[in-house]
Amino acid sequence: MKIRIANLRAGLSEDTGRLLPKAAKRLGLKPGQIAELNIIREAVDARKKADIRFVYTVEVLLKADVKIPSGIVEKDSQIAIVKEEKVKPLLRGNEPLTSRPIVVGAGPCGYFAALKLAEAGYRPILLERGYDVDRRTEDVRRFWETGELQVNSNVQFGEGGAGTFSDGKLTTRTHDPRITEVFERLAEAGAPQEILYKAKPHVGTDVLRQVVRNLRKRLEEQGGEVFFGAQVDELILEKTALGRRVAGVKLTKESELMAEHLNKHANQKGLTKFSAGSSDAGGLSTKSLPVGSLLVDSPSESREIPAEIVVLAIGHSARDTVKNLYHQDVPMQAKPFAIGLRVEHPQELIDRSQYGEMAGHERLGVADYQLHTKIQEAGRTVFSFCMCPGGTVVAAASEEGGVVTNGMSEYARDTGVANSALVVSVGPEDFPSPGPLGGAEFQRIWERKAFELGGSNYRAPAQTVGDFLADQKGDLTGALVTPTYQPDVTAANLHASLPKEVGEALQAGLKNFGRKIQGFDMAQAVLTGVETRTSAPWRILRDESLQSPDLHGLYPAGEGAGYAGGIVSAAVDGLRVADAIISTYRLVEA
């Protein structure tokens, strides 16, 4: 018999070996009557700073001849008998599929969708506009050191998505049962096993890169293929008696690496190569192509790849792709998001605030925070976002002439500096133009202002909290932490990089947060701007089948389509879309 017990509490000096006798006592049993104990969840209760506790949920397996005393489960609502639920196999659909599915984007959503499809035998083709994680890391480091930006290989674009250069936090608000599958797959790919039970799991950017490599390896072992330097420019569409449907994707003329790679791959694998042709779809009909074939034009022209299924997992910064989709009448709408600044404090200040005298205890690690307030007079919400304990503020631009900030931590979280974005909600009413692209235009305006304030060389404008609250330009000589943003920062008045109402809301928010965390609004803390890429400023619409309501075969997914926010929810959405495809289509060899 397996039993789940919640709210087992242990002090900082008690190791997990003490959980078994505690569990036995709750069940009215002796420790020797329990065959096995597994930790399901571990959280920290720091409400009483003088008595910080770990709080556990565990599952215990009783020995074969042992039964719990009668009435235990009925009397204690935190004890429950675990019922083994049989996982129902996903039933395959009946709609014939004669070409390999295309997944656009190698972030968490794209990778998990492609992996699920590959394991089901659909042999997906994964197209990523950026490069593999190793080349991408080199490009990002070069940008941080020299200011030399690669527009398709940066913090936003490339293998692993934007989350690759982040804290690698795995917290989520979604309750989809697929979360378990996401965590298990990440752990299998090299993430720390503790992510399976920690209440606030994180991987760290250094570990996450290896996880991404292993996900790619698994995908390829299962018959999927990944191509880098492959930017999708637009969809290939065709009209049918039932309406419009997807017939494939067209790559940009600049996808030189893609053409080179595809040709080399086709020669090695013996795949069929096709030249550009003409048809009602604007290229070759997908129905005439065998599964496993690829369409490759000459390197000097746009390339087309046929497909009846396209999963659009492009990430929240693919403005050019979204613009082209908009002009192809792909249904979409503007979506609210948030903009603001990065704030940096000594990590010790945050640790003391959260853990009191126990700050620095080896079992607690570094502390984080989550702050939120409604500014009534402004009618806006101010909140912390993407908090990175022991991390750095990083340059996250993906367009020339713009400065964008983000936060990043390695697994050790040991820089001694805490940072998070402090952001303010904005919506279509704030955007300079109506329609789905207005939010991206709004982002670009403030990114360019930040670029100019920083010196037009990818240095970021920075300011102490004291000067920001006083709305005055100062210098950074009194700052308690050295700004961690690279290539460098330039002292400036950050109000010039924000809409007036956003700057005023942040001033009020900082003061409010100073009442929640002592010293949070200290004059010597540092602000760096500007944070604009909190989520996609658009939503690419889909119906209950998870397809575009006007384009059969197009599956908008993940953060870039407006249906996720963070690594886990994006991965879950990728699995959800893959399940929808599998339950609709059956693969047919031509």
UniProtKB/TrEMBL annotation:
Can you tell which superkingdom this protein's organism belongs to? Bacteria
Per the UniProt record, one Pfam family is: FAD-depend_C
Q: Which residues cross the membrane?
A: none
**Annotated InterPro entries:** FAD-binding_protein, FAD-depend_C, FAD/NAD-bd_sf
> Domain FAD-dependent protein C-terminal spans what residues?
336-534
Protein name per its UniProtKB record: FAD-dependent protein C-terminal domain-containing protein
